[in-house]
Fold this sequence. Notes:
Strand order of the largest sheet: 2-1-7-8
Oligomer: single chain
Mean pLDDT: 96
Amino acid sequence: MKIGFIYAGQGSQAVGMGRSLYRNYQAARPVFDDSVMDFDLKELCFNGPAEQLNQTQFIQPCMVAVAVAATCVLADNGILPDMAAGLSLGEYSALYAAGAFDARTALSLTRFRGQVMESSVQGIDGKMAAVLGLERELLQAACDEGCSLGTVQIANYNCPGQMVIGGEAAAVEKASQAAIAKGARRVLPLNVSGPFHTSLLSPAAEKLAEKLRGIKINELNIPVIFNATARPLQNDETIVQLLTRQVMSPVYFEDSIRYMEQSGVTTIIEIGPGKVLSGFVRKTAPSMTVLSVEDGETMEAAIAAINNTRH
């Protein structure tokens, strides 16, 4: 049995996340107790307020803290990944799981990433929308039409029949209308603070690259499937390059899951609040076993399921 860990991204957060892991498992506590954030990370995760938690600059380290805590509990129970991936922000948790950096570094990096992403979209009338039931080529053609009014790009390839576009509001609106005309089943505006994973985030990418160059990044002890390429690190690539690209280029999540499946991963554990990624996996690779871990109850169920399979 080959196990893949996948990590949720921004948008799955909820007040109370991590609380039952902290209560029930000693291994989950250090990341919350030892965090050296410039805000009370444990209090914000466990008790909110939601208005603060939902800000990009706070969501990012909070989500990573919960992911790290759950990863530590799984490891404490002998469950380690053979491969890892994450959706956008989740890539930092995947890199933590692969040994690229420690928990404090993951938290400080994502705190910085959230801040520069938030600041880089100030003043941009940006928008993102989920497009359901359209082929990639047709959605790209719709974006090409929308580009007459500004920047609009495919930002996420989530699973078959579900992609996300982002960019300047007028261009996204035009591309959305074109997508409907080309046969999209629905186009749903997303409640996000900026047009993430588009070229409009290039100022954030530049600042992030500078920050990453000052960080010690260890060799990976398992393959991480990167958002920007949907494959593990290649000889001519660096983690700094791929994390920099990731902020302003599409997330190839569907392709990443297909890569994991083709590499022999049979069981996926989604780590973090919500079950959004589990749904993407089931639509992309129906033969895979999918488990999710977000609290004490789901942790116990996942540990039992893995142990039953092993025995």
